Structures are given as C-alpha cells and as structure tokens.
Amino acid sequence: MSTGKPYSRSPQAWGGAAPRSPLPRRSAAWFLGDSVWGSFIFSWAVAAGPLRLHLHRSWQCQGRHRLLSSTAAEFDRAGLAQSASRGEVEILDAKTREKLCFLDKVEPQATIAEIKNLFTKTHPQWYPARQSLRLDPKGKSLKDEDVLQKLPVGTTATLYFRDLGAQISWVTVFLTEYAGPLFIYLLFYFRVPFIYGHKYDFTSSRHTVVHLACICHSFHYIKRLLETLFVHRFSHGTMPLRNIFKNCTYYWGFAAWMAYYINHPLYTPPTYGAQQVKLALAIFVICQLGNFSIHMALRDLRPAGSKTRKIPYPTKNPFTWLFLLVSCPNYTYEVGSWIGFAIMTQCLPVALFSLVGFTQMTIWAKGKHRSYLKEFRDYPPLRMPIIPFLL
C-alpha cells in the first residue's frame, strides 16, 4: 500500500551496510543552498575553475618554453664549441704563393691524406698521389698519416702544394723494368736475325759458361718479378711516371750491352776456366739466396696494408745474420750477385753494370741508415750502411 513517499531502497535492502556517519541532509543543504555564504562560495568555485585551469596551462607552457629555451641554448653552445674546435686550412702554391684552396671546418683529427682528398674535390686534376703538401715551400713533404692537430700550425694552417707530376704504381714500374732485361737477354742468347749476321741466326754457343750465364741471368730477373708480385710490400704506392723511362733505360740498356758480348760468336771463356766459373757460380747462388732471405725478413716486419717501421734483426736463417753488421744486407747480397756474375763471364759491361749498381745502392743504403738512426734511438751502433766495417 502506497504511503505517498518516493520509492527507494535502503542500502540494507540491497544487502549493503549502512554508512557509519551519514551527513545530515539539512546541513549539506544549508551549507550549499540555504546559506548566503554557501551561494557565494559555490559561485566563486564555479567562476575560479577556468581561471585555475588557465593558470595551470600557462605554467605548463612557461615550463615547456623554459625547457625548450635551455635545450636550444645547450645546442647552440655545443655548436659553437664544435665550430671553435674546428680549424681552417689554406693551401698555397709552393712556387707562386698563389692561394689554391681554402678549407673551413676541418676537424683537428684530420690527417694529411684526408686533406688531400678534400683538395682533390676542388682540383680534380691533382689526385692525392700527385700531391705533395708541406709546411714550408722548400721543406719535406708531410706524410699521409700525419694528423693536423699534431703539426706546428694554428687554427688556420697554411700548407704549400707541389705537383709531383703524373704517377705510376711501383708494381708496374718493377714489372716493366725487370721483364725487359729477361726478354732482351734471351733475344741475344737465341741469336735472332739481324744481331750477329745471317750465318749465326738461331745458332748456339759451344761454351758451357754462356749457357750457364743465361740461366743465372734469367733466374735473377724471374726471382725479381716473383718477389714484386708476392713478397715486396711498398711503403709508397706510386712514383713519378718519368722514372719508368729512366729505370728502363738503365736496366734494358745494360742487359742488351752485356748480352751482346756474352752471347757473341767470338766470345772467349774466362781465363781460369772451369774453376773460375764454379767459384763465381757459388758466389752468385749464395748471394741470391741471401738476397731472398733478407726480402722475406723485411716482409715479415711490416704487416700487410700498413706502413709500420721496425728495426730489422737477424732471424734463425743464417743468411739474415748479416743484419748484425749492415743496415741493408739485401743491397750487399745484390752487389755480391753481380760481382759473381762478372767473375763468371769475365765481361767488361757486366763489371761496369755492377759498379754503377753498387754506387746507386750505396746512396740508397746510406739514406736508409740515416733514417734508422733518426727514428730509433736504440738502433745498433755497430751497423754500417752496406759494407761491414767500411761503408
């Protein structure tokens, strides 16, 4: 039966517990609705809500702005510091002092090789192998591995450029200058037409020493060709193109001159006959083995693809024990080989070739010896450049 009250169900009716301290309805209504203060507070809360939201958002924006500003300032400082750490490189012509290139923002850790590559981008005709960069117009060329910040230069480095001319690889030069004598000597040995006259075409000598000399000469240059391909490791990849003409003239010219006389139909054997030939052959073979042993020892000192320099020392191979006395025993053995060949053939052109070769190799040996002394403080003091105790 209806009592006139609105239908409701108490918490107890739903199985719940009654609130522990219920707020009287009148107190809440008086505070929020019936009271003037309640109306004022309620109106202020409604009006102040958007203001608080606006202030909150403003504070957030200001915080974000300060964060972005500080981050941008940090990036600016980092950029300025990085720009300040970078240097500038000015490249001038060593002869005319004309400015050829100006490189900015160059890293202080940049190497000379990297600077050469940058220079090539502005002057493609001067590829890196053709460039010589130096600190002084008449000074020595800087090495490719030299680092810019380790050089005595300021923030703006001035380097002087010199054109080395067209370049060619060392391997190509060696193969060309060694293959020529091998081929030329065989032309005279087989006495091809138009050399000694028609009646001697494709004839052979009756002297054993002539055939033995051809074997020794061919063996020497075949050995050099194989060493060029499989043994030698060059510290410099290229050399001036003009050198190939000079080197080939020397090797090819002397090969033709000595081959002409040794293989001539009127050639006479050595004065002391077979004994002289055997002694000379022993000298030649020993020196050839020694030369090869030194080349292998030098190869083991330098890892493939590097320019590392170390002091060469004797190994278990007895032929390398010459390192105890000289800095360049490979040249010592080379000269010994040609001296043995000259004694074997008793031919004046061979003796002159040996003398010229000894002079040139002495110059090379002295240069390497000075380099060793300058680079290594603990370099053995008893060593001489090419001849033990003398030179």
Describe this structure in words.
It is built from nine helices and six strands. 53% of the residues lie in helices and 8% in strands. α1 (25-34) crosses α2 (36-85), α4 packs antiparallel against α5 (208-230) and α5 (208-230) packs parallel to α7. A hairpin with a 5-residue loop joins β1 (87-93) and β2. It is elongated, with a radius of gyration of 45 Å. It has 391 residues and is α+β, with helices and mostly antiparallel strands. The strands form two sheets. The chain has a four-stranded mixed beta sheet. A two-stranded antiparallel sheet has the order 5-6.
Provide tags for this entry.
two-stranded antiparallel sheet, 391 residues, 53% helix, 4-stranded mixed sheet, alpha+beta
- Strand content range: 5-15%
Poorly predicted runs: 1-48, 50-59, 78-84
Cα distance spanning the termini = 139 Å
Q: Report Rg.
A: 45 Å
- Tell me roughly what share of residues is in helical segments: 40-55%
- Across the major sheet, the strand order is 2-1-4-3
Profile the largest sheet.
4 strands, mixed
> Average pLDDT, to the nearest integer?
83
Q: What is the 3D form? A: elongated
Structural class: alpha+beta
- Treating each run of at least 4 consecutive H or I residues as one helix, how many helices? 9
